[in-house]
Task: inverse folding
């Protein structure tokens, strides 16, 4: 069973920017895009009836994952000392306080701090419960040295995958090679 129609993904959309995809989606010009909670307010403001789901599977029997970076980590530089170290510890203590976590969840962030549950948008609830809270998500390009290069490459490779121009294995190989070269 085909999960998508390859003829609907045309050459003119390969490499389209994230902002262009978001605008076209909010205007009802495309049916599905890859995005995250940072765009939810735009969709809600547009009046669009929208939903959010994990990445589509390419073959029956594959496990479905969401992509993203919920609860990005915070750390203290190991060589800090004295007042700077004390200030960093104070800042981290504040950032994991209920008040700070509440503010982050109001911004759409999916918090994965043990013992804390985010109040996420209704459209995000299922992915939050089934993917984020269970750890079935994978990190994307924002954690690498050259995220812009990787974002563009990932978009182009994914669009080729959807068009049927490359296989899932070729997609993974191409992304791995691009990540290695961009570091």
Result:
């Amino acid at each position: 069973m085909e999960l998508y129609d390859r003829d609907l993904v045309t050459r003119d959309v390969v490499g389209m920017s994230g902002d262009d995809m978001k605008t076209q989606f909010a205007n009802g010009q495309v049916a599905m895009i890859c995005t995250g909670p940072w765009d939810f307010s735009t969709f809600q403001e547009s009046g669009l009836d929208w939903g959010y789901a994990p990445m589509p599977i390419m073959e029956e029997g594959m496990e479905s994952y969401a992509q993203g970076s919920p609860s990005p980590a915070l750390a203290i530089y190991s060589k800090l000392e004295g007042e700077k170290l004390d200030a960093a510890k104070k800042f981290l203590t504040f950032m994991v306080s209920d008040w700070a976590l509440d503010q982050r969840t109001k911004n759409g962030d999916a918090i994965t701090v043990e013992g804390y549950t985010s109040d996420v948008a209704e459209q995000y609830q299922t992915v939050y419960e089934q993917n984020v809270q269970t750890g079935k998500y994978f990190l994307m390009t924002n954690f690498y040295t050259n995220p812009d290069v990787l974002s563009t490459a990932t978009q182009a490779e994914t669009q080729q995958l959807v068009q049927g121009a490359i296989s899932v294995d070729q997609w993974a190989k191409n992304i791995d090679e691009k990540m290695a070269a961009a570091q």
Notes: DSSP finds seven helices and two strands in the chain. The two ends are 38 Å apart (CA to CA).
